[in-house]
Design goal:
Helix content: 25-40%
Radius of gyration: 21 Å
Structural class: alpha/beta
Strand content: 15-25%
Shape: globular
Number of helices: 14
Strand order of the largest sheet: 4-12-9-8-5-6-7-16
Mean pLDDT: 91
Distance between the termini: 44 Å
Amino acid sequence: MLDWAASGGMALTGPGDGPPSLAPAGLYGLLADVAGRLAAVSAVRADPAELIAGRAALAGFTRAGRVSAGGSSRLLRCADGWCAVTLSRDSDLEAVPAVLGILGAAGDPGADPWESLAGAAKDAAAAELADAAQTLGVPAAALPPGPAPGAWPPGLRTRVAPALPGARLAGALVVDLSSMWAGPLCARLLGLAGARVVKVESPDRPDGARAGNRDFYDWLHSGHLSAAVDFRARRDPLAALLESADVVIEASRPRALAHLGLSPGAISHKKGQVWLSITGYGRAGDRVAFGDDAAVAGGLTGRDAAGDPVFCADAVADPLTGMHGALAVCESLASGGGELIDLAMRDVAAAFAAAPGPDHGPHEVRPDGTVACLASGRTQEILAPRRPSPPGKPAAELGADTGAVLAGLAPSSC
């Protein structure tokens, strides 16, 4: 709990006009354990505090209770509980009138979208609001009324290729098709372990994180190669790149890659290849999620003085999934690889929400801005998020020709 207070994550959790939240009690201890396991298998020593609160430090985010630190998600009170909704894209905002229509609520075209949703939520069940939003592709999740199932380790593994004894991450080719935070963080950690990372984006749908804090984007992608590829027009070269990869990271809806003929079942896999598929709710479904609403779906929230939920840290399911994804890839390679890892952000959040907290007695948040452990007599100041370590060299832009990427990453040079 004292480490949580020092991490910057606690300073981001709780109402904006009240004290920060001690909950969730077991999150930081489990994250430190995952970081230790990652160091043991890859020699990468990740700082849990940097991963959880680094983006907020760079962007100047602060806690705001039932408004996310980034401002695009809100916890809405419903007739039977709480629902998190994220309106981060123009399409999400445009879908609000249709969501209201599904709920049978009258909407004023000139009204604030959040006010309209909050009004409709009061008469709707949390699951009903989440279902209505998801029908229109808007990220939303009902907060479970009790502890969500939190199996450890999260993620489902299936074999897609023969194992390769002696598979190593050092010098391996990682092709990163993901965007935003969780997948790129995983790629960053694998790059720090010695892998060579190629980030692939579609020119008409670049990584949305490019429009956010540039320092954060550069921190995630430092030293990676970058290629802009038309997924439809250049399918064959892209498929060849994926087939040559030692690790593939993607965070698309399964049907999207399947439609392009680039899904794990549509391409061949070299011996030992590991394919990490990050989704909001698992490959079997089609629901969308961002970090804040995925955390709520897994029951991972803080609590205010009245016991009502508040958002935990900053889009916390993203860094937790990125860290655990990197560990899962490293552990798979250590046993020969050849696996598809189906990693759902909701399941990662649920696993961390279920982590046991300290068992040696209570802790107190004191008016002087410290947390006190009554059993040990120790105290810790609640620290603000701190900026992550400066990135190394920026990503190298490779242009639109995937063939050039393949030529630069020929087997002889790997």
